[in-house]
Amino acid sequence: AAGVIQSPRHLIKEKRETATLKCYPIPRHDTVYWYQQGPGQDPQFLISFYEKMQSDKGSIPDRFSAQQFSDYHSELNMSSLELGDSALYFCASSPGTSAYNEQFFGPGTRLTVL
Amino acid sequence: AQSVTQLGSHVSVSEGALVLLRCNYSSSVPPYLFWYVQYPNQGLQLLLKYTSAATLVKGINGFEAEFKKSETSFHLTKPSAHMSDAAEYFCAVRAADSNYQLIWGAGTKLIIKP
Question: What's the confidence (pLDDT) of residue A1?
Answer without folding.
Answer: 66
